[in-house]
DNA sequence: TTCTTACGTAAGCATTCGCTTACACTCCAA
DNA sequence: TTGGAGTGTAAGCGAATGCTTACGTAAGAA
């Protein structure tokens, strides 16, 4: 079931959508207009994927549908990855911090 | 370029492989024998995907090829996700911790 | 040298994916 | 009530994916 979410974020276009709707709630048209090289329908289908992965929430406002990121599901996905990768939040945290320190 | 890694971990079979080689270094045959419902060749191809995503390291030992997880690349992937999802490690950490606390 | 083990890789196939075009529906304003 | 704006969805298509079988190759063992 977490599989669907992982497949969803594996697509760069969908990650960009997630980034947009994490900054502010947006109607589908506005989201689509951010992608000049692809049709509105394609974006609508991407939104469908994100919706079925429960990574975005949809709210109706008259004619429009406003999307925003589902922070809770994102957090759940993150926890899943944490536990999967290293069997513990702590070990991962130190690994990430070490890598970040090395970067500086 | 992080795309390849994300696509790689989107597959449940490959995640299971990563889990195995994060516990201990293993020859390809041993890895394959963990999957009864799929051929050795399929696992070899999965290993190829993980290798080109730089998520595993390969070491030759005579006839065999020993695989282990590449912790450094995993950490890089994790940092990428952290920054992508919430634009900062701190906000993510608190969100994850809050979700975990809610779970208890 | 000649097997055998341990592997990667090529070819082919069914399924999935991301996209486009075309269409259907729901609001709301005129 | 008619029309346009905002949106999801069906159909179809080319490309990518995951799998199988078959083959190729390197490293010991016999």
Could you characterize the architecture of this molecule?
Two copies of one chain form a homodimer. By secondary structure, chain A is α+β, with helices and mostly antiparallel strands. Helices cover 67% and strands 13% of the residues of chain A. Chain A is built from six helices and three strands, in the order ααβααββαα. In chain A, β2 and β3 form a beta hairpin. The radius of gyration of chain A is 16 Å and the shape is globular. Chain A binds chain B through residues 3, 6-7, 9-10, 12, 15, 18-19, 22, 71-72, 74-76, 78-79, 81-82, 84-87, 89, 92-93, 95-96, 98-100, and chain B through 3, 6-7, 9-10, 12, 15, 18-19, 22, 71-72, 74-76, 78-79, 81-82, 84-86, 89, 92-93, 95-96, 98-100.
CATH architecture of chain A: Orthogonal Bundle
- Kindly report the CATH topology of chain A: Arc Repressor Mutant, subunit A
Major sheet characteristics of chain A: 3 strands, antiparallel
Chain pair forming the biggest interface: A-B, 31 and 30 residues
Ends distance of chain A: 37 Å
As a whole number of angstroms, the C-alpha radius of gyration of chain A is 16 Å
| Strand-residue proportion of chain A | 5-15%
| SSE sequence of chain A, one letter per element | HHEHHEEHH
């Amino acid at each position: 079931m977490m599989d669907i979410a992982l497949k969803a974020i594996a697509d760069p276009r969908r990650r960009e959508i997630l980034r947009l709707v994490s900054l502010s709630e947006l109607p589908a048209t506005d989201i689509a207009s951010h992608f000049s090289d692809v049709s509105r329908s394609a974006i609508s289908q991407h939104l469908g994927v994100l919706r079925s992965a429960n990574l975005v929430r949809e709210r109706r406002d008259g004619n429009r549908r406003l999307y925003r990121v589902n922070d809770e599901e994102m957090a759940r996905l993150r926890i899943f990855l944490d536990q999967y990768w290293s069997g513990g939040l702590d070990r991962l945290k130190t690994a990430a911090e070490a890598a970040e320190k090395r970067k500086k």
